């Protein structure tokens, strides 16, 4: 019996809280469809988010901020992630939680600026001399070790490339062989090798191999046209943070200090403002010359009320800078004290001067019908079979407690169904599982009724 191992299969991923979100679910006119792309309800918020997406695509939104404000469990994070899906992979989307700024290694404003720079992309277009084609052969040629001994070293590597017009054999440096191994290049892959630097880029698998396996998750590309040796426009997408890190890291040398630095675990170092200004100058120069194009992305900061007054004042300056992304905030707080102050109360815990320059999108609690639809979607994503009665009961529980609590009962109910050897989760199983687990309201009620049984802090 012949068994073949399929290397390129879809990676198994954990089902997260927003795995079902595929987009904003808008029609051609920008009107929200009630149930579409994994989102349910929140039509006004989704339509407002759709307008923001169009403004981002038109590059008329940079340096501005949006705030999603609404009670817990009303889809604020889901809509923000749907916006990233609509923008596509080419537009940088950097999600973070406000509490991330309180790092022991780096100061708060540095963490904010790092994420700001991660959310700004630079698309560099260069015309390079390359060798491009489908790999026909990779033959490393060995020679005796010049230092003596039994080992052998690779002197050069022969690589055969094929295009629609012809084939060519190249004799390449051994360092390029290492690049081929890093990129996991095999026979049948379409690659290009830069003539000047020797950099290797794997573009995908040749579409001649497209029917080899049914379970391939590989990206297939057509056989390149023209000659193997050609001039090609190469487009590279990097973020400003990538440029910052590349220029901030020490390049190393032969002295003992640089060797020790490579051995020791590198610590998180702060990138200076002076370095960032120098990089901005070079970036602006490339943009003026038409070599590069700035792609303002999205920085999503959840739980914005966790930032303190120092961070809010820093956000003012960062939003006003020439190179700034679109910033999306989210919060579930009403009127509360601004962190870092003693008694300054403000809506959403955000200072009024910053709140004044933010466009606010509100989200509202889900009604029972919408909870039913969300539970249907989540049960399909998580592979839980529910009958109609169980779905109605879960929706009832969700409307009386919270949507999150109802969604969290799905997998425990499915596990209990397996114990009972039932193929479908029914209402009896849902009732039993809801009695085993408490929601926040039930827990608070028990704490109030049996206060004397618990250790309470005055």
From TrEMBL:
Proposed core component of the chromatin remodeling Ino80 complex which is involved in transcriptional regulation, DNA replication and probably DNA repair. The keyword Coiled coil does not apply. One of its GO terms (cellular component) is nucleus. Transmembrane segments: none annotated. It is found in: Nucleus. Belongs to the RuvB family. It is an enzyme of class 3 (hydrolase). SMART domains: AAA. One of its GO terms (biological process) is DNA repair. It comes from the Eukaryota. This is RuvB-like helicase. It comes from Dinothrombium tinctorium.
């Amino acid at each position: 019996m012949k068994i073949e191992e399929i290397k390129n299969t879809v990676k198994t991923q954990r089902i997260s809280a927003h795995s079902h979100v595929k987009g904003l679910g808008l029609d051609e006119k920008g009107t929200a469809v009630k149930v579409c792309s994994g989102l349910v309800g929140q039509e006004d918020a989704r339509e407002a988010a759709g307008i923001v997406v169009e403004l981002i695509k038109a590059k008329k939104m940079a340096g501005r901020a949006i705030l999603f404000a609404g009670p817990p469990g009303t889809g604020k994070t889901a809509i923000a992630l749907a916006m990233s899906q609509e923008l596509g992979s080419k537009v940088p989307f950097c999600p973070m939680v406000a509490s991330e700024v309180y790092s022991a290694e780096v100061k708060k404003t540095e963490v904010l600026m790092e994420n700001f720079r991660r959310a700004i992309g630079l698309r560099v277009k260069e015309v390079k001399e390359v060798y491009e084609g489908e790999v026909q052969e990779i033959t490393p040629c060995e020679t005796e070790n010049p230092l003596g001994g039994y080992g052998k070293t690779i002197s050069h590597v022969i690589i055969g490339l094929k295009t629609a017009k012809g084939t060519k054999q190249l004799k390449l440096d051994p360092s390029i062989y290492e690049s081929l191994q890093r990129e996991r290049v095999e026979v049948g892959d379409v690659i290009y090798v830069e003539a000047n630097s020797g950099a290797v880029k794997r573009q995908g698998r040749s579409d001649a191999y497209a029917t080899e396996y049914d379970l391939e998750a590989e990206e297939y590309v057509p056989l390149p046209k023209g000659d193997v040796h050609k001039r090609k426009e190469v487009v590279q997408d990097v973020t400003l943070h990538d440029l910052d890190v590349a220029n901030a890291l020490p390049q190393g040398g032969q002295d003992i200090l640089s060797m020790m630095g490579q051995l020791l675990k590198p610590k998180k170092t702060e990138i200076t403002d002076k370095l960032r200004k120098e990089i901005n100058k070079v970036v602006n120069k490339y943009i003026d010359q038409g070599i590069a194009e700035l792609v303002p992305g999205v920085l999503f900061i959840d739980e914005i009320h966790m930032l303190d007054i120092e961070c809010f004042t820093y956000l003012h300056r960062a939003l006003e800078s020439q190179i700034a992304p679109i910033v999306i905030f989210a919060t579930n707080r009403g009127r509360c004290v601004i962190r870092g102050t003693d008694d300054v109360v403000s809506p959403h815990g955000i200072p009024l001067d910053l709140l004044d320059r933010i466009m606010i999108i509100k989200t509202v609690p889900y009604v029972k019908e919408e909870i039913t639809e969300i539970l249907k979607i989540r049960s399909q994503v998580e592979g839980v079979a529910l009958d109609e009665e169980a779905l109605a009961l879960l929706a009832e529980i969700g409307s009386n407690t919270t949507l999150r609590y109802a969604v969290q009962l799905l997998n425990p109910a499915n596990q209990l169904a397996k114990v009972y050897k039932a193929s479908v989760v029914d209402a009896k199983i849902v009732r039993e599982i809801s009695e085993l687990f408490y929601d926040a309201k039930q827990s608070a009620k028990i704490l109030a009724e049996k206060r004397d049984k618990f250790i309470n802090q005055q």
